[in-house]
Write a structure and sequence with these properties.
- There is one protein chain.
- By secondary structure, the protein is α+β, with helices and mostly antiparallel strands.
- It folds into 2 domains: about 120 residues, Beta Barrel (OB fold (Dihydrolipoamide Acetyltransferase, E2P)), CATH 2.40.50; about 200 residues, Chloramphenicol Acetyltransferase, CATH 3.30.559.
- The chain contains 10 helices and 16 strands.
- The strands form 4 sheets. It has a 6-stranded mixed β-sheet, sandwiched between helices. A 4-stranded antiparallel β-sheet has the order 1-8-6-3, with no helix packed on it. Strands 5-4-2-7 form a 4-stranded antiparallel β-sheet, with no helix packed on it.
- A hairpin with a 2-residue loop joins β10 and β11.
- The longest helix has 16 residues.
- The termini are far apart.
- The relative contact order is 0.12.
Length: about 375
């Protein structure tokens, strides 16, 4: 029986997704779990896996197409089976009733119209070259392949990247620019700053093993548990309404080439610290290699971004909508502070909380930050 492949909903309020590349060819046999294609959303470029075994057939949407969520883009069929008849007559993505985002419309309107049949074939390109083109932000449709039968090689991609204008943005960099601009111009940010004594954090990390967990892992676990007391800090701004999320899923900002992605720990408040550490490490490796899956970047309800490893003392972070807060973490450094009226040296860390004033006010955010600071000072009381 034929199985439809639809444009997945990778995040809340997503209306469309853009096909970056097909990693399997029409007529190719695939197994459940094989990566079929890469899809670009407002957050990242992610891989979409096959949900069943079969032969890829009836591909209706191609690289560069912006497709409404839920629309069938291809089929998986049994050997010798034909895709359902309606797949050949279904309206193409360009004529879908669900309107693409403003950025997608602008991008499509700036591109020349394709000639009849031009998009019926995708450029022949090796898997390594395709991944390299995504990392470099190179448009493979503009590359003339020098390999057998015109196949685009890694060398062709590198040559095109070297010849490209310096101002060109990769897909991740462009998405990051659009997303942060939208947040900064539409979300009424406010910021709270607090210094915290990090001795407790350092001690529990040494107890668990500094090669086993990082400060970020501990902060994810502690913050998630404190969020349980402050549901509005874990809420969502949803088209003029405040929606309290049932789960606490902490998104961790991770640096990738030309940008940052938010990989999500689900559910962080109920996950053991060692499990958080292993998940975060695996997500980080997949992010760096460009192999994030849809589930890796969806469902985040609160974000932590840590630049302490770069010796940054403090910074303000931009909220990732529809979340309503983000915690920016600076480095741990010895500072002289007053303790019982006397100078003392303590390992201090600066936390900066960015809040969406449409959902939380300064007092509510301050109480959350106070509780978080106390939890960081006494992590053993929260991690059990």
């Amino acid at each position: 029986m034929a199985t439809s492949i639809v444009m997945p909903a990778l995040e809340m309020a997503q209306e469309t997704g853009k096909i970056v590349s097909w990693l399997k060819k029409e007529g190719e046999t695939v197994s459940k779990g094989d990566v079929l294609l890469e899809v670009e959303t407002d957050k990242a470029v992610v891989e979409v896996e096959a949900t069943a075994d079969g032969v890829l057939a009836g591909v209706k949407s191609h690289e560069g197409d912006v497709v409404p969520v839920g629309q069938t883009i291809a089929w998986l069929v049994a050997p010798g089976e034909q895709p359902p008849a309606d797949s050949a007559t279904a309206a193409p993505a360009a004529r879908a009733t669900t309107a693409p985002s403003l950025s997608a419309r602008a991008e499509r309107s700036s591109q020349p119209a394709a000639a009849p049949g031009e998009r019926s074939r995708s450029p022949q390109i090796s898997p390594k070259a395709r991944r390299l083109a995504k990392e470099k932000g190179v448009d493979i449709t503009k590359i003339v392949g020098t390999g057998p039968d015109g196949t685009i090689s890694s060398e062709d991609v590198l040559k095109a990247a070297a010849e490209a204008p310096a101002s060109g943005l990769s897909a991740i960099a462009r998405l990051m620019a659009e997303r942060t601009t939208q947040s900064w111009t539409q979300v009424p940010h406010f910021f709270l700053v607090r210094e915290v004594d990090a001795r407790g954090l350092i001690e529990i990390r040494e107890k668990l093993g500094i090669t086993v967990v990082t400060h970020t892992d501990l902060l994810v676990a502690i913050t998630a548990r404190v969020l349980g007391k402050h549901p509005k800090m874990n809420a969502t701004w949803d088209n003029g309404n405040i929606r309290l999320n049932p789960g606490i899923n902490v998104s961790v900002a991770m640096a990738v080439q030309d940008g940052v992605v938010g990989a999500v720990i689900h559910p962080a408040d109920k996950t053991a610290i060692t499990d958080i550490a292993s998940q975060r490490k695996e997500l980080s490796e997949r992010a760096r290699s460009g192999r994030l899956k849809p589930a890796d970047v969806t469902g985040g309800t609160f974000t932590i971004t840590n630049l302490g490893m770069y010796d940054v003392d403090a910074f303000n972070a931009i909220i990732a909508p529809p979340q309503v807060a983000i915690l920016a973490v600076g480095r741990i450094a010895d500072r002289v502070i007053a303790v019982n009226g006397q100078p003392a040296v303590r390992p201090m860390m600066t936390l900066t909380l960015s809040g969406d004033h449409r959902v939380v006010d300064g007092a509510q955010a301050a109480v959350f930050l106070k509780d978080l600071a106390e939890a960081i000072r006494t992590p053993g009381n929260w991690l059990g």
